[in-house]
Amino acid sequence: MREEGVDVLFVGLSSDLEYLSGVERGIPFFGQSSYPHGWVAGGFFRPDAEPVFVLPRMVVVFDLPVRPEGEVVVVDETDDGRAVFERVAKSLGAGASVAVGDRVWAETTIELGRIFGLERLRTGAALVNRLRRVKTEAELDTMARACRTVEAAMAAVTPLVQPGVTMAELREEVEAELREAGSLTPSFATHIFTGMDADSLDTGTATARAPLPDGTAVLFDFGGVVDGYCSDFGRTVVAGEPPSGFLVAHEAMLAAFEAGRAACRPGVLAREVNTACRAPIEARAWASTSATAWGTASGSTCTSGRSSHRRTRRLSRRA
């Protein structure tokens, strides 16, 4: 924080707050909690000072199994949440520069701007990301255990990929096997499908209950969670005999994986690893049909969608 000239960092309920303080985030769900004064929930961090947490009473009662180290200010339903939040924020000092985490309510950000001045606010995710990017041995061990949950689930479900099964049935079995293997919850919405066109079978469409034809490839995309850390997993299984060309494509994908793994070394650029992965595919003239780039960021969250083609950040030893 000193290097970046940041005096105060505010982080809402998120994987960043869990990483910094141990305050566990809840399991995501389709609806939304609406606690009184819910927008105040989070923690203030400063160099060489204990963190200060501001939490609605409902969060403390229902969502805080372990009290974090530092001061905890509880906002009751009948309290003036805005006044309590302002009192805590002002007690931290003038705050020449205040960083705000990504998972912070808009109302919270507006209040921080009112208290400290909007010109003093900046985004703070990069501060925590720099810490989270490099994993400790304990974190790597936990991530490996999260990976074992999906491997166990996949091993149990693979024999069920037979003509006539539905994508919905496979999803139900995958998530049941994940729990059996020790996963708290899927790390993201389990997606099982046969392709990307309109006629494909997909757990996210009306075709989820349609029977699987013989000779069809089924794509599995799911992940598990162990002790707050995630895995992100993908496999393709064919019902019956694979169609012509599938085995050749499978060999190319294995070659791409091995090439990428060999390229992963400290100091190598992410885009260089992506190039190494794509080389075996391009050698077979399939470059135009390969829609994805190398890499899904996993840890206490799973992140997809940012292309590695232009990434210039160098890999660290445990990234």
Describe the structure.
The protein has 319 residues and is of the alpha/beta class. It folds into 2 domains: 8-132, Creatine Amidinohydrolase, Chain A, domain 1 (3-Layer(aba) Sandwich); 137-303, Creatine Amidinohydrolase, CATH 3.90.230. 34% of the residues lie in helices and 15% in strands. It contains 9 helices and 13 strands. The strands form 4 sheets. It has a 6-stranded mixed β-sheet with strand order 4-3-2-1-5-6. Strands 7-8-11 form a 3-stranded antiparallel β-sheet, covered by helices on one side. α2 (57-63) links the parallel β3 (52-56) and β4. α3 (81-90) packs across α4 (106-116) and α8 runs antiparallel to α9 (270-282). The longest helix is centred in the middle third of the chain and has 21 residues, at 137-157. The radius of gyration is 23 Å and the shape is elongated. The two termini are 21 Å apart. The model is unreliable at 305-319 (pLDDT under 50).
